[in-house]
Design the sequence.
């Protein structure tokens, strides 16, 4: 049995939600679990409760709200009333209050709005989640954004400050997105930063052509390119945790092992400078 390491979050985005991956995660010391209301065809919460009710109390659990069943698929909404009801529903379906509730991709409803209208809409949504936290429906709240650039067009410094900001992380994240994340974090004074999608949506072919192991301090102890990419993602941008999805206990074990590697922060800084120089040329 390995010691618990909260830095790795098991994400359920493309997961089949089988019990064996949850038991394997606990055995490996992975005690953080991330899901969302629309995952598994809007059945993620209920399936987790049905198949692993006894395991869920052993995890710190985060979920996301903002997408709702609609005609022909999912619709996005930042309506405060709908969000508050969604947090209540998540707790009922899971059979427990989630530790963290994240506003799911708010940029979907902000894109195309004026700065003033976006500010009002995002402010109401953030207030709804902050209120839900104060009411004990969850322990913390935050924002999960696939593309934080539209959020940067909205003045956020006077909005409720999220406990968590979850964004894309890793070597496949472009410099424009990394800069937008840095600006948003500074303006919003968010608490922790969590990364997600460290492999760029499962694009394994990239790592056949590119070796990220030079971003690790030697010795690498036989770590693979994928392991190096995952470990480096904690610094692009700087993140307290990184969520990764897998249904393979062996893959999860490899990622846990990668956490013991040390990242060469000087190499990461040099890489970022090169990206900035390339953009300016």
Sequence:
């Amino acid at each position: 049995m390995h010691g618990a390491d909260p830095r790795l979050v098991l994400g359920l985005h493309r997961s089949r939600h089988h019990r064996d991956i949850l038991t394997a995660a606990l055995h490996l010391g992975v005690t953080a679990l991330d899901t969302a209301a629309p995952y598994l065809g809007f059945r993620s919460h209920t399936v987790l409760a049905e198949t692993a009710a006894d395991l869920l109390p052993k995890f710190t659990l985060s979920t996301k709200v903002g997408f709702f069943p609609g005609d022909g698929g999912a619709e996005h909404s930042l309506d405060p009333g709908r969000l508050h009801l969604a947090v209540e529903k998540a707790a009922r379906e899971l059979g427990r209050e989630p530790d963290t509730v994240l506003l799911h991709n708010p940029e979907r409803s902000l894109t195309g709005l004026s700065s003033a209208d976006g500010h009002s809409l995002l402010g109401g949504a953030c207030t709804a989640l902050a209120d839900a936290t104060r009411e004990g429906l969850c322990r913390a709240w935050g924002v999960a954004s696939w593309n934080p650039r539209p959020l940067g067009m909205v003045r956020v410094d006077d909005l409720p400050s999220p406990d968590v900001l979850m964004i894309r992380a890793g070597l496949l994240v472009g410099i424009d997105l990394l800069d937008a994340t840095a600006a948003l974090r500074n303006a919003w004074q968010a608490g922790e930063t969590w990364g997600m999608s460290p492999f760029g949506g499962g694009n394994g072919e990239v790592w056949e052509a590119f070796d990220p192991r030079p971003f690790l301090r030697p010795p690498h102890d036989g770590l693979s390119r994928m392991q190096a990419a995952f470990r480096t993602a904690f610094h692009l941008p700087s993140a307290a945790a990184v969520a990764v999805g897998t249904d393979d206990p062996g893959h999860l074990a490899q990622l846990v092992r990668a956490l013991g590697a040390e990242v060469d922060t000087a190499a990461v800084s040099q890489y970022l400078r090169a990206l900035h120089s390339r953009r300016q040329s």
Q: What stands out?
A: The chain has one domain: 8-280. Strands lie at 8-11, 32-34, 60-65, 67-70, 73-76, 100-104, 140-145, 164-168, 192-196, 241-245.
